[in-house]
Design goal:
Strand order of the largest sheet: 1-2-5
Number of strands: 5
Number of helices: 8
Number of domains: 2
Shape: globular
CATH superfamily of the largest domain: Elongation factor Ts, dimerisation domain
Distance between the termini: 75 Å
Order of helices and strands: HHHEEHHHHEEHE
Largest sheet: 3 strands, antiparallel
CATH topology of the largest domain: Tetrahydropterin Synthase, Chain A
CATH class of the largest domain: Alpha Beta
Structural class: alpha+beta
Radius of gyration: 20 Å
């Protein structure tokens, strides 16, 4: 009898730890994590996929919300020859002061310093530039991945694009987040 109780307790403990880990990775609530784990038949990876999809849905619902708070981020490369300024906004000052938001701004600065994008989104590219680039690039998607911040693979996790990384933060923080503008400086350019 004690063996069964201990076995059940260990299983419950493992479930609690799994829910805790899912919550840390996604930023979603305990109940959502528990439901996803149950739906996935206690399969951690399947539950994580379910929660990521839910996070994307949450992020898409928030895209129309006004963002009047945020941070101006900056980065100067160690050689002093590359610098980045970025404006990232969110809905509240509370979120702007969180470590997660600050980390997002810092990572975006590093991304821009490393990859030198010219545009934030595809919609920012003038049609005449797209037509010109179509003549140069065999595949216009390559141009987008190289020059559009949201299309680039995230330098710290290339399984995500920057857009997906930002949507994950929106889901975790529960507020809309926008990259309004950035400037990259490099000596000699």
């Amino acid at each position: 009898m004690k063996t069964k109780y201990k076995k059940k307790e260990i299983t419950m403990s493992q479930t609690v730890e799994t829910i805790k880990k899912l919550r840390e990775l996604t930023g979603l609530g305990v109940i959502e994590c528990k439901k996803a784990l149950e739906k996935a038949g206690n399969n951690f990876d399947k539950a994580l996929e379910i929660l990521k999809e839910k996070g994307i849905q949450i992020a898409e619902k928030k895209t129309d919300k006004t963002t009047k708070e945020g941070l101006i981020g900056s980065y100067i490369h160690s050689n002093g020859k590359i610098g980045v300024l970025i404006e990232v906004t969110c809905e509240s000052d509370f979120v702007a002061r969180t470590d997660d938001f600050k980390e997002l701004v810092k990572n975006l600065c590093l991304q821009i310093a490393a990859t030198s994008p010219e545009y934030i989104k595809r919609d920012d590219i003038p049609p005449e530039v797209i037509e010109q680039k179509k003549k140069i690039y065999n595949d216009i998607e390559t141009f987008y991945k190289e020059n559009v911040l949201f299309e680039q693979p995230f330098i710290k996790d290339d399984s995500l694009t920057i857009e997906q990384y930002i949507k994950n933060k929106i889901a975790k923080l529960g507020e809309n987040i926008k990259v309004n503008r950035f400037t990259r400086y490099q000596i000699g350019e």
